[in-house]
């Protein structure tokens, strides 16, 4: 992965709450790491009687072994400052047998 593709900065937060706790508690896991952010689609859906907007994004970073579906990604550079995504899938990109990158599929 070329460094020029990672033009944004993000903070990855990990959920430290118990599995039975209804309110998640996120703490910083990786701060200010380089990432490439591509917003792939967006839309609006009705849930009950409320209209909910959502945006899907793919966030690429260097390989991090402790990031999974319980994490959140928060943008820390323009134009994504303060934007929060929930990770729905974490895919490892390999070169040969070595992990080199991580693709995070996320939604807002």
Class from secondary-structure proportions: mainly beta
CATH class: Mainly Beta
Q: What is the topology, as strand order, of the major beta sheet?
A: 1-2-3-6-5-4
Biggest β-sheet strands, sense, barrel: 6 strands, antiparallel, barrel
**Which descriptor suits the 3D outline?**
globular
CATH topology name, in short, is Thrombin, subunit H
Known CATH architecture: Beta Barrel
Tell me the total number of β-strands. Answer: 6
Q: Which strand-content bin applies to the residues?
A: over 45%
- Counting DSSP H or I runs of 4 or more residues, the number of helices is 0
User: Which sequence of SSEs, written as H and E, runs from N to C?
Assistant: EEEEEE
Rg from C-alpha positions? Answer: 15 Å
Q: Please, what is the CATH homologous superfamily? A: Bacteriophage SPP1 head-tail adaptor protein
């Amino acid at each position: 992965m070329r460094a020029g593709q990672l033009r944004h900065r993000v903070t990855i937060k990990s959920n430290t709450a118990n599995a039975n706790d209804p309110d998640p508690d996120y703490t910083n896991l990786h701060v200010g790491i380089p990432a490439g952010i591509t917003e792939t689609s967006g839309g609006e859906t009705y849930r009950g009687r409320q209209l909910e907007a959502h945006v899907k994004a793919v966030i690429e970073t260097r390989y991090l072994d402790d990031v999974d579906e319980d994490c959140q990604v928060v943008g820390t550079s323009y134009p994504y400052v303060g934007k929060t995504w929930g990770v729905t899938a974490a895919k490892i990109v390999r070169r040969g047998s070595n992990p080199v990158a991580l693709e995070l599929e996320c939604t807002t």
